[in-house]
Amino acid sequence: MKELTISLNTGSDIPMYGQIYTYIKEEIRKGRIRNGEQLPSARALSRHLSVSRSTVDMAYLQLQSEGYIDSLPRKGYYVSDINLLHGLHDALPGNLFEEKPIRSEAGIDFSPRGIDLSYFPFNAWRKISKNILSADNPELFKTGNPKGDRAFRQTIARYLFEARGVRTEADRIILGAGNEYLLLLLNQILGGERNIAMENPTYTQAYRVFLSLGQKIVPVDMDGQGINIRELAGTMADTVYVMPSHHYPMGIVMPIGRRLELLKWSAGHPDRYIIEDDYDSEFRYKGKPIPALKSLDEKDSVIYIGTFSKSISPALRMSYMVLPARLMKIYQKKLSFYSSSVSSMDQAIVNEFITGGQFERHLNRMRSIYKNKHDLLANELKKINRPVRILGENSGLHILLETDSELNEECIMDMLLKEGVRIYGLSEYYIRPPAQPYKSAFILGYANLTDKQILKGVSEIKKVLEAVR
């Protein structure tokens, strides 16, 4: 087991867990901590560095969520083979399928994937875990139901009704280790080659999954209300993948009228399906929450996918899918022999976390924290002394900053990176150039940043954008 001696800067803007995370990540990427090597336990490392246990827990949780380390029950943390993270992408075509070069480290990273782990209720989580283990329940160590524990699926069904307006039964829900796994499973359920329409720009992870499966991708441009239904109707698409609650990366919330148009499209043929990725639906800062598209689904043609990655932690690798009745019959007939990809232990913990009320309290707390960060970022961006437009500012964990001209996104990003600030260009998310010319725009995630980092980061963005003409 490798001993880690990390020089921590107590005066840095980067929190302690962030410094530990960055150090270990760089050691792994540079090969100084090798594939398969065991890391110190969180307790041992916290003692060694004279920091709290929760600080190390947060660092390990972030490393695990990004695939740098794995947690083995009763054994500890081990370094993953990071070469495997990129091996599949090298063999397949498509601009969006290519991994972008890893840029040098930035002190302030407006990553849209981050969450704020400093408020995670570690004590409650640890207590639930201990209580479940002390019960000596042998069922937790069995393979379990392929679709997931029934009691947990009932809990999810209740949550979907109360929070998203979705009426469903536990028997229509399948748990999976992340959205990508569920899309792989769905591909087998649907069977054969399909024409899958995707919003342009789109969520690249889903695009890569469909591309790797040999599906035909049909890009459909967006307008201010979401996917262009007229353009969709003119294609041969039989399936459409949408993110109506908070589109990534555009931040658009699809209004009720457009949702009804989309449902009307799916009703036009019995073999048409809508895949609803309910991305970021938990976080809305203005107006009343809009129910999920699935809640309006009278024809039972919407496949609903949700996740706990933003509301709890991406390290859980826990998502769920609600299938139309006819597709569930196919699953039961052809694929029910698959073992569940989510551990029974994790299911039991999250189930208790929800039913015991801790999930709702945590979610309410994070909504308030994220709203404060969101408002700070939006207000500071409005001070930029050149025409810019802020999009998608009513919900989610990122904002889209559109400039007044066709600035070179790569150039702007490189200039900011030299100042220690990383932002993300919108052009990387387009499957093809849109029919209408688009202005340069940048995705700014804020969940994992402190107020001080947001202020410093926007100050640098302001300097660069005001200097470039």
Topology at a glance:
Elements: H1 16-29, H2 42-49, H3 53-65, E1 69-72, E2 76-79, H4 84-90, E3 108-109, H5 122-134, H6 150-164, E4 173-176, H7 179-190, E5 195-200, H8 204-212, E6 216-223, E7 226-227, H9 229-233, E8 239-242, H10 256-266, E9 273-277, E10 302-307, E11 319-322, H11 325-334, H12 344-355, H13 358-381, E12 388-391, E13 398-403, H14 409-418, E14 421-422, E15 424-425, E16 441-445, H15 451-467
Parallel strand pairs: 3-14, 5-6, 5-8, 8-9, 9-10
Antiparallel strand pairs: 1-2, 4-11, 6-7, 10-11, 12-13, 13-16, 15-16
Key terms for this structure?
HTH_trans_reg/aminotransferase; four-stranded antiparallel beta sheet; 469 residues; 14% strand; Aspartate Aminotransferase, domain 2; 15 helices; 3 domains; eight-stranded mixed beta sheet; transcription; GntR family transcriptional regulator / MocR family aminotransferase; Arc Repressor Mutant, subunit A; alpha/beta; globular; DNA-binding; pyridoxal phosphate binding; single chain; Aspartate Aminotransferase, domain 1
Provide a quick synopsis of the model:
The protein is an alpha/beta fold.
Structural commentary:
It is built from 15 helices and 16 strands. The chain has 469 residues and is of the alpha/beta class. It folds into three domains: 16-79, Arc Repressor Mutant, subunit A, CATH 1.10.10.10; 108-112 and 361-467, Aspartate Aminotransferase, domain 1 (Alpha-Beta Complex), CATH 3.90.1150.10; 138-356, 3-Layer(aba) Sandwich (Aspartate Aminotransferase, domain 2), CATH 3.40.640. α5 (122-134) packs across α12. The longest helix is centred in the last third of the chain and has 24 residues, at 358-381. The protein is globular, with a radius of gyration of 22 Å. The protein starts with 15 loop residues before the first helix and ends with a helix. This is GntR family transcriptional regulator / MocR family aminotransferase. InterPro entries: Aminotransferase_I/II_large, HTH_trans_reg/aminotransferase, PyrdxlP-dep_Trfase, PyrdxlP-dep_Trfase_major, Tscrpt_reg_HTH_GntR, WH-like_DNA-bd_sf, WH_DNA-bd_sf. One of its GO terms (molecular function) is DNA-binding transcription factor activity. In the C-terminal section; belongs to the class-I pyridoxal-phosphate-dependent aminotransferase family.
